[in-house]
What we know:
The chain is mainly α. The protein folds into two domains: about 20-60, no CATH class; about 80-140, no CATH class. The chain has five helices and no strands.
Amino acid sequence: MPWKPGQSGNPAGRRPGTGEVARLRAAIAQAVPEILDRLVQQARDGDMQAIKLLLERTLPPLKPMALPEPLPVPATGSLTERAEAVLAAMAAGQASADAAEAAMAGLATLARLRVIDDLERRIAALEERSKPDGRKLEAADRGA
């Protein structure tokens, strides 16, 4: 008869947590406070490897951060015109590549949102025209 999930195929076998790895982990766990105290003391004494190890394991790595910078991008006009303005500003040295990339990503998101808005308007218009009595389709009528 096949075993059920969670049921051992060898009930008389070795219990979990009794192997070599478990014993090694238990021994290390007992020594961790002493190891950490010694590592901290070595770092205080100027051991660069101890300092590096402590800092790498306790502090997140520093990441470059771009400072906010205004972009000469028109607030109106087509998305294409705005994107061209961003690229021109970057080419002229008025904007960093990171700022231009962020602006282009924002414009791409705006373009996708406009497409979704347009599709919603078109679907609503089609639904309104599809009802013979002129009433709008309800959510239940659409199968939602």
